Protein 1
Amino acid sequence: MNKVTVAAHPETGNVITPSTKNVEYGTIRVDSVEVTFNNGLLNKSKRSAFIRGKQDELAELNLVEGSKMAGKIVKMEQYTPFYDGQNTKINPTTGEVVLTEGRETYIQFVFTEDQTETDRFIHSGAPVEETVEATAEAAAEELR
């Protein structure tokens, strides 16, 4: 069974961090090391996700730094941002934007209690071929 570890805010030391937009709500950070296999290659990666909710309901969980919770952190990836102002996926070694099928991608890590949940790519937006055709048409139109 997978487990995640509750982490305290690095500056305040609190487990529950109030929302900056609505003080009734807050987040709890959880961390894990996930093991995945891609093309026969084992990969261990550190992951963090946030559990969101009303502060009083989060407090009822009675979690402290280091508490263990059954669950896992899954990676969601798609061609469009998950939220306003999100940066594209970057290679941490080179600092370059990572492309999937020639397109920029965005990732988000999500906590789930569902042990069968897996990382997934959400195919949203137009297929690459349509995007390339539309770009070529727009470029041709500019030349006319």
Protein 2
Amino acid sequence: MNYKIAIATSDKENIDLHFGKVKALAIFEVNEDDGTFKLLENRQIDFSSIQKVEKSESGCCCDSGFVTALVQIVKDCTYFLVAKIGNRPYRLLQENNINCIEAPYAISEAINKVNAYYVLHKKREVHVF
């Protein structure tokens, strides 16, 4: 069986983007049986459809519709890997059953670790941490 992982990357080799800096996501398909994976597609974020609001003093753009847009983009993915994410967007993604993981590693290393976890826990309905 295969599943998808959305990854915040600028170079298709490393998970190197903070949640708030994502402009596109690399979608990988992983074969849970043998751990092989391949890049399926790149999904662009349509910023024209995101409501523009002022950022908070901390610079957070969580209320701008950015989280909502990302939920729609990654809703068919089992995991969403980013280099860093704040508490509020993390919580909003979790509330939408998006399993977001901070994994500032090489993509191959991160996918191998996630697949080992997935195989170990695959009998669970939802993999929310």
Protein 3
Amino acid sequence: MLCRVIRHDGDTGQEKTMSIIAHNEVFAVFESGKYIVPEGEKDCSALPWNNHPKFKGVALKHLVTGGDSGGLFSYHLVRIEPNEAIGDHIHDPQLETHEVIAGSGVCLNGDCRIDYAPGMISLFKPRVNHSVRAGENGLLLFVKFMPPLC
């Protein structure tokens, strides 16, 4: 599904169409951004992408780890390649959130089916089966775990 937003160009007075997939730029900004705390900063562009150990076509970049947050949470960029999936799994004891930045897909959260599109946020309670399958353009997510995944 290609979503489009119309914006008004104040200089020319004409409307222009901009693809919502421009949110990839948002993802790229975080991918190469900085994590800053009073103790110092971390260059996110220097952090590696890690292939998921179980699910082909899924990669994670660990921006904030439990070590960074005092064991409170972790924050990750997640890339799911077109038509690939994070298969059925649970987290115990983590609560997990997904923020859909770009692409589309289908998420199963327990018995609930959620059609993923940019701007959606979903929450997974601990010990609840869930999975995500990316659509034909892949899927880009911000994902958080409390307590941290790593």
Protein 4
Amino acid sequence: MYGLDVLHKFNWIRLIARMFEAMAGNYVHSSDIQLFINVINGSLALHAEDACILRYCMATIVNAAHQFKNIFSHNGYFLIMPSVVRIYSNNQTNELITRTVEFVCKQLYVLHRKPFLLQMFGSVAPLLDGDDVGSGGGSAFGDAFKVQPKYLYKLLCSLSKPGHDLLHMMELVKMKKPLTALDFCYQVRTAGQLLDFMSSPIKVVLSRAIPRTSACSSASPCACWSSPTTPGRSAPARC
């Protein structure tokens, strides 16, 4: 029964991959492909340890990120990254899975750069396990439905290192190799380091945390930073 289920999921993955190839890539709504992506997520959740399933699923994800670049540059990674990162966190003893996920995330980062990072952080944040494993706050192995923060950090560190395609997954990717950024503004930039990966979400959080007062205009800087203090007058209050 197990072998039959693996064969069933494999045929479904190949069908979804062929459907993606035949579809036009000018969709702008992620709901158009969400049902198809769910097949990939479910197959990974059930049979991630199977090399053939893992190879075809990861290749289909990379092809979809290129085919539907408008969706994935906006919110498409919210559909796949929670499952991918959870599988990575729960299979640290399986080097084939971890190194394949690291390689795939590296390729996805090359394609979309900052949109990929921001969507990955946004989709994984609710899944992070806040319990201290081994200190009495959680089980010895953590919550299987959560993502361990240390493994997310490990995945981020792997983005700045050269990866290896252990499953020869790139043979199934219908793009010119090596992959390049889809957005022209990233074409002249190389992959960054860990500080570069963390800077984008930190800037987003800071922009949300610092309120804009009515005295500040979005078109011009605040007077407290642009106008010097004249003699006999007090300095304007900082915004």
